[in-house]
């Protein structure tokens, strides 16, 4: 075990106890084993999912057909980046990590035993332990220190990026996986709906595929302005115009070839099914806070659509995200709009939830 001097015994941490019951507490700094890593957190982003968990969404706390997934009390946060302050000998060899290195762990902690983990599709792990959601197994990054547990998938990250930008590796890695799923071709009209941090990343990644026309949809002018700057050929404010009609007009009435949905709103699904052409590809990424009803005959009988789901980062997400940020191929400096200390997490969550002035809000311990 290698460790820096002066690691304290106690640290500040946001602790999630239940819906709308998140507290700033002083808790023990995690103790690590020889196959684990302890990092000092530099930054941890607030995901739309974190806000939905805070609000009590069924996907996190159970309800309807969904079993509870959060196991509280737990430190939230899966968009973290940290500096290695202690590393066990096994972990040092396995990941090539030394004290002082910057490192990120993938958000999923694979169980290593289920059929998905064994086949290499570890991001679909049946257990779905994700940092920030299960106490002890997967405490997250909204704290001063964090343990990357033994089954973590860890990547070394260069220190050239500002910390808040490096905390965008997780959302960008999810974006990489979704855009890979979308299978964009040169002649395609691609719609990316929802210009939050992840939508803005997907927009840039879709642009790298050089589609014929790239359209961004959102309801917030600030987000659409940035979308245009980051490569959208056309931006549509769905609060002002009928987005489906607009897209049809731009495509000789056929509709878009690919529709990538990130908004988490039922209206984004309904709108997508309206504006997508026959034989189109619909990729769904959002986390919804409620159920969505649609006419499934559109999917089958009318349009014979390909509907694809996209979950976290896939296998390629993190390595590509780290590489693209290092090479400046994807820009996140204007996506991160606000940083707050841990002490102000309530204010930060409120700002992230409103999402008017902010795009990505990051906590910096
Ligand atoms: Zn997230
Ligand atoms: Zn598994």
Provide a descriptive summary of the structure in words:
This protein is of the alpha/beta class. It folds into two domains: 2-168 and 335-363, Medium-chain alcohol dehydrogenases, catalytic domain (Quinone Oxidoreductase, Chain A, domain 1); 175-309, Rossmann fold (3-Layer(aba) Sandwich). It is built from 13 helices and 18 strands. The chain has helices at 48-55, 58-61, 89-95, 115-119, 163-166, 169-182, 197-208, 221-229, 243-250, 266-275, 296-302, 317-326, 345-354; strands at residues 2-3, 10-18, 21-28, 37-45, 79-87, 102-105, 108-109, 129-130, 145-148, 154-157, 189-193, 213-218, 234-237, 256-261, 276-284, 306-309, 336-340, 360-363. The strands form four sheets. Strands 1, 4, 5, 6, 9, 10, 17 and 18 form an eight-stranded mixed β-sheet that branches. Helix 13 links the parallel strand 17 and strand 18 (360-363). Helix 6 crosses helix 12 (317-326). The mean pLDDT is 96. Bound molecules: zinc ion (2 copies).
